[in-house]
Amino acid sequence: MSADQPSGDKPAGNGRSAGEKSDFKRELTGVVPHLRAFARGLCGRPDLADDLVQETLLKAWAAQERFEPGTSMRAWTFVILRNAYLTDMRRNRFRGEYDEGVAERILTAPAGQEEPIHLSDLHRALLTLPAERREALLLVGAGGFSYEEAAAICGCAVGTIKSRVGRARAALSEMLASGSIPRRSTDDEVAHSAILEELDEVAAGNGVSSRP
Amino acid sequence: MARCVLRFPGWRIGLSADRDTVSGTIASDMASTDGHGGNHGAGDQNARRRPPEWADGLKQLYDSVVEEALPDSFKDLIDRLDAMPPARGRDHGK
Question: What ipTM does the predicted assembly reach?
């Protein structure tokens, strides 16, 4: 691979000026924490989430000429991250493993329930949602995007995002209100053996990727 | 019961990418629970009328990661970016 001349500040044929590149890099660097947060919400495990973000950064860098200065770097990179996530997911790379590091912070203590709801409960419940609903809820409910922005990121209609967010909220509310939240993998033998069985099946080539 | 049913989807989220398209029939029904005052009489009243109590938790989850110190691996990667040429435009820039 031939490296670009580092000293050249002219657009080398297909490139942007050094100034534009450094602006791009600064903006890209600025959104890394947000990419990590979005990725963590999507795929649960911090190490896999960070891999995804690194992949996103490389792709964004490679595609920087398609970024329009002045538009939202966060939204632009979220699209890239989301596509990378969906691709990986189709390859069965993410299996909804829980982040054991989420703080056991108490969120709320619903009346009539002996156990309060913890932040980690919410995270685990979130990970049980279908990917589309999870990402819609993350974009709107955590990332602070408008429905319109979230729709643009996901490449779908605003109404679709609204319905996904609504369904995600309803599902989470129900899970949290009833206490029917999957427990931690480490102390949930049923879940643990379920995933092991699945892995065995995948390893045996039977795959579980055939959809119900 | 409910608990058993819910456990398994948690481990299979990787497989449910297009569930929305399959189950679109209930979409319009649920859309009205979204932020606006739903007027479904049945079910848990509170969850449907106002932002759920846990809503702030999503922000907390997100913000807790945003506020984490960036691992060195990211700094290293960002430092290396300049040495990587952006993709040659497949359409030659035009």
Answer: 0.71
